[in-house]
Design brief:
Blueprint (H helix, E strand, L loop, with lengths): L2 E6 L8 H15 L4 E4 L9 H8 L2 E9 L5 E9 L3 E5 L1 H4 L16 H11 L6 E5 L10 H6 L3 E3 L18 E3 L9 E5 L11 H5 L10 H19 L11 H12 L3 E4 H8 L2 H5 L4 E5 L2 E2 L8 H12 L3 E5 L1 E2 L13 E4 L7 H24 L2
Length: 373
């Protein structure tokens, strides 16, 4: 072999994409010492987007304090790349890890995301913003973010409505800010869900944020109501656009309040990495994520990498933490083989303790297998 590419996502809660790729590179180098090893840590828009971008392009980290999802200040930050792109993860201000066991999707806010956007726009040289959608604790369609940016929401009596998900149904009038964001925003997301309905933000992703069965119709109805108001105001479709349901409806918020674009995060990262050029001439590509199942087909790192490998006839092997139902469907889009690191029944705390050694053993075994052919 002459060249091997490592293009993995992070393994959520255990290993960053950089750590995964580094372990894999070390083990493969032992079996193929003369081979060129290229690390391209990936992300699909959620956790790890900032780190992945900084591994691909020169840049600097910026830290600041913003309003967290529970309305309490949190230490946060983002990155500014050398080309003037500010890379922001909404989870850095409104993510599930920031709320711990105190999940309250009726009041959880994206206000801090708006503060991050304003902070980034105030930095010299920022020309555009890449906003990663994923891992949110919120279900407010970005109205908290919008409020931080100067948008105001009123009820039928023209009294201002608090920017919380539980008040979405009360909104009847919306006043935009005098000055919009001065730079364009592109949102990176990994889902195609619409804003409302059985495949919408609340029904599909609400339970992981603490939404109870009784709250689903309340929150979904609120999103539907807001969508109708926005579409009437902006004279454009919002709620039915693919990805509008991403991150508790933040996809819709990006469209409506930022006049931004929604794009698959993995495609943006692959383009940033100049993947199409680098993969040509490669003998093999190693990709993966924490769990590979049917969901991996839809905007996740392994499927994005595999499709491009298939285009250029390069074998693509997926290494993951665990394999779920539907994983074999990835064979149809360019994955050559899937291997799992977790071979015994254990809880997540056990996985966290052994994840590095598990990945090392899996990578070593995979490299030795490839060497035999």
């Amino acid at each position: 072999m002459k060249r091997i590419l490592f293009a993995s996502d992070s393994f959520k809660g255990t290993l960053s994409a950089q750590e995964v790729c580094s372990i894999q590179k070390e083990e493969f180098q032992m079996q193929f010492p003369q081979c060129e090893m290229v690390m391209l840590p990936m992300a699909d828009g959620g956790e790890g987007l900032v780190e992945a971008c900084l591994s691909l392009r020169p840049g600097q980290r910026i830290t600041c304090t913003v309003t967290g999802p529970n309305w309490v200040p949190v230490e946060s930050g983002y990155a500014i790349l050398e080309d003037g792109t500010a890379v922001i993860e909404m989870a850095a201000a409104a993510g599930l890890p920031l709320v711990g066991d105190h999940r309250d999707p009726l009041t959880a806010t994206t206000y801090g995301v708006g503060e991050l956007l304003l902070h980034a726009c105030g930095q010299p040289g920022v020309r555009q913003i890449l906003l990663g959608l994923g891992g949110s604790a919120t279900n407010d369609a970005g109205i908290g973010m919008a409020q931080a940016l100067g948008w105001k929401f009123f009820d039928e009596k023209r009294e201002e409505v608090p920017a919380k998900a539980c008040y979405l149904n009360r909104i009847h009038h919306i006043l935009p800010p005098e000055h919009p964001l001065p730079v364009p925003v592109t949102a990176a997301c990994d889902v195609k869900n619409p804003l409302c309905g059985p495949m919408g933000a609340t029904a599909v992703y609400g339970p992981q944020k603490g939404v109870t069965p009784e709250q689903v119709p309340i929150l979904d109805g609120g999103l539907r109501h807001l969508s109708a108001i926005l579409e009437q105001m902006l004279h454009r479709e919002i709620g039915t656009i693919e990805g509008s349901g991403a991150a508790g409806g933040m996809g819709a918020g990006v469209l409506a309040f930022l006049n931004g674009n929604l794009k698959p995060g993995i495609e943006l990262l692959l383009d940033m990495a100049d993947f199409d050029r680098i993969v040509q001439g490669a003998d093999c590509v190693i990709t993966g994520e924490g769990k590979i199942d049917r969901q991996s087909l839809y905007g996740k790192v392994p499927s994005g990498v595999a499709k491009r490998c298939q285009k250029y006839g390069v074998p693509c092997i997926a290494l993951c933490g665990s394999v779920g139902e539907g994983a074999e469907e990835l064979y149809q889009i360019g994955v050559s083989a899937i291997f799992s690191a977790v071979s015994t029944c254990t809880d997540f705390s056990g996985v966290q303790k052994t994840c590095r050694e598990d990945m090392r053993i899996l990578s070593r075994a995979t490299a030795r297998m490839i060497r035999t052919f």
